[in-house]
UniProtKB/TrEMBL annotation, chains A, B:
The keyword DNA-binding belongs to this UniProt entry's keyword annotation: yes
Recorded GO MF terms: DNA-binding transcription factor activity; transcription cis-regulatory region binding
Domain HTH lacI-type: 12-66
UniProt lineage: Bacteria, Pseudomonadati, Bacteroidota, Sphingobacteriia, Sphingobacteriales
Annotated protein name in UniProt: LacI family transcriptional regulator/LacI family transcriptional regulator, repressor for deo operon, udp, cdd, tsx, nupC, and nupG
Domain of life: Bacteria
Alphabetic keyword roster: DNA-binding, Transcription, Transcription regulation
Amino acid sequence: MIYLICMKNHQITIFDLARELNISKSTVSRVLTGHPNVHPDTRKRVLDLAEKLDYQRNMIAIQLATQQSKTIGIIIPEILSSYFPYVIAAIQEEAHKEGYNVLISQSNESYETEVTNAKVMLDNRVDGVIVSITKETLNFDHLKVFQKKGIPIVFFNRVCNEMVVPKVIVDDYEGAFGAVEHLILSGRKRIAHLSGPSSLAISVKRLNGYLAALKKHNIPADPELIISYDFSKEKIAIYVNHLINLKNPPDAIFAINDPTAIDTIQIIKKNGLRVPEDIAVVGFSDDYVSALIEPPLTTVAQPVREIGITAAQLLFDQIKKDSSQWKTPVKILKTKLIVRKSS
Amino acid sequence: MIYLICMKNHQITIFDLARELNISKSTVSRVLTGHPNVHPDTRKRVLDLAEKLDYQRNMIAIQLATQQSKTIGIIIPEILSSYFPYVIAAIQEEAHKEGYNVLISQSNESYETEVTNAKVMLDNRVDGVIVSITKETLNFDHLKVFQKKGIPIVFFNRVCNEMVVPKVIVDDYEGAFGAVEHLILSGRKRIAHLSGPSSLAISVKRLNGYLAALKKHNIPADPELIISYDFSKEKIAIYVNHLINLKNPPDAIFAINDPTAIDTIQIIKKNGLRVPEDIAVVGFSDDYVSALIEPPLTTVAQPVREIGITAAQLLFDQIKKDSSQWKTPVKILKTKLIVRKSS
DNA sequence: CTGTTTCATGGGAGCGGTCCCTAAAATTGG
DNA sequence: CCAATTTTAGGGACCGCTCCCATGAAACAG
């Protein structure tokens, strides 16, 4: 049997299959897309030949013809901490179940990069996008574009308050409240808080949880003990040392997240103080590391997999529906205090 | 001014721009692709209108027309350990510099999934692919397809010996040798080795390095102390307990990688033994966690960023060249022993 | 036995670009 | 000032596929 195939680029097209079988490309297309109205014999012949010639469909052509990229985008501030990889992994699983690819971009906590990444997503015609903003993001025009163009968007973790779209967050307030109350109930009197940039809602909510817990137990909030920083590694040492050297130093530190808490512990130890005897430390997120460090970190666990799955589901809910039917739920997932030896 | 634009899907095309300016879409295309032969005035008019109407190029159409996806694929066994995210981040940086997108897929250490992922990459017509195989991968047909189709492929970390393509690895043998010699020089006599699946070259090389170090120092290799396991979390406990309970137990354990070493330490501690006093432990890779655990882990550091950058560069070298000019270098990067308190 | 459905297939217009080929306009040189 | 050359712009095939429409054959009902 002589194949008439002309394999430019080593690639076989439906046209090659059609010519070989002396049928039209429409029929081949019908077989390949699972369209019902094809004679079983024809279907078999096409499928057999496709298999035999190792036909590989061209998703790019399909994307162009169907006007959907079958791709969703993820825009996150960074990929290296253990929180995000877990969420990504969960999103990817859901996406693959739906037959979607995932384009991941990290903004490196830079607003500029986030804007660029959003453009790349647009260029690539993603069918939807899941976003967690950088600490610098104050203007949201680059994200509102998605709304304007009718591309579904879902936020998680670090959300944008001024956009009415689906969001997945955890009960940061409750989580922080519980963590701080735990410190109070274990006898701590002067509890400091290493907070994040006030631009982020999570910073504000966790701070409010902290303040509420103090208030409930009639402990006056001391502004000296509340430090808001920008997540830059170098500055943690400065702030922790500052706290330690206060004339009335704290006996506990509640950190905005686990990486901060872990660094805090290292610095306290470097100063010759003990954790938790001299200063207790509590973090937020239950990163993979937190159970392994010495002392193991008390922290507020987030359901990372559930966050990813929920975000993906909210996105696909929108992708599948007409935009007029979109809902904008805000899913608030529960956190869980994990008490370990650092407190 | 009345715009004639017909914005199906809220998207503006070059045709819309052309009609609006009363010129041909060829000219618009020329402007947008930076082709030189365009009158400066025309160029400005096009650019201005594009800006004004917020024209967004359609990468999918471009990909189809130019026959390149401007996307590279990464196939890795998992994304959650700290080794891979660092490599990925480095690859992504390089890719973005070249104007390429990155499609990441994790095989979850499953051969089946790896095969599926390879197909997805092919479907999406990636211009090249960077691969680290699963522990199960013994057949490489799904990867040889890339070669056959002329799609550049680069391996890193876990490479395929039977394929002659560029690879990026570290000097596993030397690294293991140095780690074990370090244990010997610090007075350890019975050094066990928790090795990986023998299907992986890294397992074999690290094992050989281990054996060579013993030999050099005239320590007979005891088969009882060499355990090969499949990276499954559950089994580490069994093997470590087994080692501890030998009538002649080891005084040191060299683990194939850091996660294993970290788990090993936890289990030793659970057994009421001390690290390093009773048993020293050494790992491989210098994961982010390793410095933070108690005791901090002695380990063989890998240049993760350099691995990613090198792999990406080798890939782009091939992508840019005609396949007849492809070279197949194997870059062997240096490891570095980081001595901490676990040994 | 004929009119109406249903089924199987072919034809062809997109999808949104690129890029080659050609033609007209502008520039240059002798 | 005209031929030769270079710029600038347009036309249209093509990338590989989908999907609507048309057509003819087969199946069915009256």
